[in-house]
């Protein structure tokens, strides 16, 4: 979006703020100012937001549950994979919004139910008028015949009756013209109703196709989500095994050193045993006080394409966090060697660990 066409607005969930060179709004599910759980965002680049991978990932990062802690995209251990998933999700959202706007524009041109009801009422009125005209025509014909019979028996009333007959014939002619006009209008209205019915059926079919396309896109996102969490869990399990083996190796080294010192009579066992027992108790207390998160894979719940389908939320824990996410944020700082590409996903490796 160009600078002279910068998008702006005020959400019902928060106010405006500023962050860097970008205008920032505040919403209830994030935090960017004095008001808690509020943030907002305005794109002022010369291209759509869906083409700005870094900006889109930073924007969608704020859409999370209450009390959710998440670091900036640049500080994430899986920044590239997270940005790639957010770009695909943003493109799907943009395509959906564009399609919905297109359908709303098409539907705005379709006559409303009140207009169709007025057309039906007009058809009924014209039909009734034609029937009444036919009844009047029959009665007028009977009256003309009766007057003709009176003229044959009374020539004194011939002139008056002739005038009445002329007037009635003119009225009959007018009624016939009105009847033909009403028939033409009824025919046009019937054609219009058929055209509108076809358009409604076409739009209904198109909407069903759009719903299926949106469902397919959500299924694809769910598959990408499952693959990402599977890779994270695999690396996490490997890291735990590596840490356990490293601890066992350190314990063996410590035991060997202790044996050497005992052999050289450099350690008094009566003094060293109580000291090591106290150190062990202190370490066990520290281990119990630490919280360790576990990765649990869960599937994105994709609703069926149906008007009666119910959208079910993702699986969450007792704190409202989606299962499978680390609520303590990124662990990027724990990996001094940087990022290593593995199995198509970027992962960090601890110091001393070699890339497979």
Give the topology.
Layout: E1 16-19, E2 22-25, H1 53-61, H2 79-108, H3 113-153, H4 158-263, H5 269-289, E3 339-342, E4 345-348
Antiparallel strand pairs: 1-2, 3-4
Helix pairs in contact: 1-2, 2-4, 3-4
Describe this structure in words.
With 356 residues, the chain is mainly alpha-helical. It has a domain at 3-80. It is 58% helix and 4% strand. It has helices at 53-61, 79-108, 113-153, 158-263, 269-289, and strands at residues 16-19, 22-25, 339-342, 345-348. The strands form two sheets. A two-stranded antiparallel sheet has the order 1-2. A hairpin with a 2-residue loop joins β1 and β2 (22-25). α2 (79-108) runs antiparallel to α4 and α3 packs antiparallel against α4. The longest helix is centred in the middle third of the chain and has 106 residues, at 158-263. The chain is rod-shaped. Residues 1-34, 307-314 and 334-356 have low confidence and may be disordered.
Q: Output the strand order for the largest sheet.
A: 1-2
**Helical stretch count?**
5
Averaged pLDDT: 71
Number of strands: 4
Bulk shape: rod-shaped
Q: Give the amount of beta strand, in percent.
A: under 5%
Structural Rg: 41 Å
Order of helices and strands: EEHHHHHEE
Quickly give the structural class. Answer: mainly alpha
InterPro entries: DUF1633 (IPR012436)
Keywords: Coiled coil
Coiled coil: 179-213
Notable traits:
5 helices; single chain; rod-shaped; mainly alpha; 356 residues; 4% strand; disordered C terminus; 4 strands; two-stranded antiparallel sheet; disordered N terminus
